[in-house]
Specification:
Length: 303
């Protein structure tokens, strides 16, 4: 049996037979004889293990990349990298995007404009606190309501549907100072009105032989400074009067003027006057006779 005494660093440069023995000195100073083939096998296994470990290090992310508040993420398969998460951010994905640090909007200034920001809970609560509740809301300032509004009736099975017409400009509706409960009165709503004054609709013309009167717009018509005879009150008369509607006509002439009323007028309680009296004002009162479709003269006088 051949025995060779070599150091570990010299082993690689020697080529003795595999049946040879090598004398190795341990750290405790004890000499051991080990078969050379076993030594070679041990070194090969160790070398292969170390090499495989070094080769696999490329699959790892170095810890030097991990600063404070850093996490591991990937935007594609097998590509891990470090992502630092700053203050007021969360990690997530926007629609169609990659994982990223998303900003938290502390005052809701950019939430509506950007998909990559998130509202903070505090800012959301603050914004919601400024909104009126659905139940018994209280509004301040100028409130704009939809052009069509529905109000439930008492049993909530039907609605009052409020609609509007087109305006040429803004219009202000002022509610009166009520001293008690009250209600609105509508066109088709039968209601007795108390303490209400209806101001007559009026029109006037200075001297005309055929005065123009629309009884849909006029309750009182005054013909002033009449310098000529009146040839017809019917010619330019228009309107769609209703039963018992009133019409008051006054004529003041610069002298006595003849009056022709025409076919739309008839005698009633008194005869139709045919002339003014000098420069006095003549007042004639009519009601609409729906049976004859004529204005019936009920009173006449000059003063």
């Amino acid at each position: 049996m051949t025995t060779a005494k070599i150091s570990e660093t010299e082993l690689e440069n020697t080529s003795p037979a595999d049946t040879s023995f090598v004398e190795l000195e341990t750290s405790g100073g004890v000499s051991e004889h080990t078969k050379l083939s076993a030594i070679r096998t041990l070194f090969k296994v160790t070398y292969d293990t170390v090499y495989a470990t070094i080769a696999s290090l490329s699959d790892y992310v170095t810890k030097a990349l991990y600063d404070a508040h850093t996490i591991l993420y990937a935007t594609s398969d097998n590509t891990p990298t470090a992502l630092t998460v700053g203050e007021q951010t969360v990690v997530g994905r926007v629609t169609g995007g990659n994982i990223s640090a998303l900003s938290i909007d502390s005052d809701l200034s950019s939430v509506s404009a950007n998909d990559d920001t998130l509202p903070s809970a505090k800012a959301t609560k603050t914004a919601l606190d400024l909104k009126a509740p659905l139940a018994s809301p209280t509004f301040t300032g100028t409130v704009t309501i939809p052009k069509t509004t529905e109000i439930q009736d008492t049993s909530a099975d039907h609605q009052y549907v409020l609609a509007v017409n087109e305006l040429a400009a803004d219009r202000t509706v002022t509610l009166p100072l009520l001293t008690g409960n009250d209600e609105f009165v509508f066109a088709a709503h039968t209601k007795t009105l108390t303490n209400k004054r209806v101001t007559p609709r009026t029109d006037s013309t200075t001297s005309s032989a055929t005065p123009t009167i629309n009884t849909d717009n006029v309750d009182f018509y005054h013909l002033t400074a009449q310098t000529a005879d009146i040839t017809s009150f019917t010619t330019n008369l228009s309107g769609t009067p209703t039963t018992n509607q009133r019409l008051h006509i006054a004529v003041t002439g610069t002298a006595a003027r003849a009056i022709t009323w025409g076919t739309s007028f008839e005698a009633g309680a008194v005869s139709l006057p045919t002339t003014t009296v000098t420069t006095q004002r003549l007042d004639v009162l009519f009601i609409w006779n729906a049976v004859t479709s004529k204005w019936r003269c009920m009173a006449s006088g000059s003063a």
